[in-house]
Write a structure and sequence with these properties.
33% of the residues are buried. Strand 6 and strand 7 form a beta hairpin. This protein has an eight-stranded antiparallel barrel. The chain has one helix and eight strands; from the N terminus they run H-E-E-E-E-E-E-E-E. It is mainly beta.
């Protein structure tokens, strides 16, 4: 369990990402890379708002539909991917990301954190705008490797259990040159690999900011 407040920017992967993000923001030229035949590489960071958390829920048994809130907190992470513009308005993309969700020490969690590694493929559709500045919609699907760890943070502690979950998300975003922001709704039906049976799903809202080259 946690014994003190963690500094997310002190030697953590998120801090390293933020340093890289600021470096690229200073030295990346503002030229759009949107249009048929273009290949983009993406580096991004996530902040995942936990909207519906019912994993590790001892109250979810037949005859009792009440949730046990707050088992895991909001998550954070980073990822990489690529997108290929099939047409001037349609992108096929693949991504891998790593996120950590710290456990609530006052809840009935089996461990201090869940590490989530979604591996997805999906599509991005330009809705309005030009190749320099535009609004888009996205939808991704795939699988996520889930790991229950005895410590908080990206590196956590001892592994308690692991497994795979389906993963899907959809949302909207804005891209301005190389820079983009997305807000999505994501669903994982088997969030906590230490829990078997039904009622082990979560709904999160990933807020993503990154750079496409």
């Amino acid at each position: 369990m946690r014994t003190g407040k963690q500094n997310l920017f002190n030697g953590s992967p998120l801090g390293i990402f933020m340093t890289l993000f600021l470096f690229l923001a200073l030295f990346t030229p503002q030229k759009a890379r949107a249009g048929a035949g273009q290949l983009n590489f993406m580096v991004f960071g996530n902040y995942n708002l936990m909207i519906s958390d019912v994993s590790s829920n001892p109250a979810n048994v037949p005859g009792n539909n009440g949730p046990y809130p707050g088992t895991f907190g909001n998550g954070y992470g980073l990822g990489v991917g690529f997108g290929y513009w099939l047409t001037d308005n349609l992108v096929f993309r693949m991504m891998v990301q790593g996120n950590t969700f710290p456990g609530n020490p006052d809840a009935a969690s089996l461990g201090d954190s869940v590490q989530s590694v979604p591996i997805t493929a999906g599509f991005k559709v330009r809705l309005i705008g030009d190749p320099t500045l535009f609004l888009f919609a996205v939808a991704d699907g795939g699988g996520s490797y889930q790991e229950l760890l005895s410590g908080n943070g990206f590196f956590g502690g001892k592994e308690l259990s692991n497994g795979w979950s389906a993963y899907g998300d959809t949302g909207i975003g804005v891209q301005d040159g190389h820079f983009f922001v997305e807000v999505k709704v994501a669903w994982l039906p088997r969030f906590d690999p230490g829990v078997s049976g039904r009622n082990n799903s979560v709904v999160t809202v990933p807020v993503t900011a990154g750079i496409a080259f």
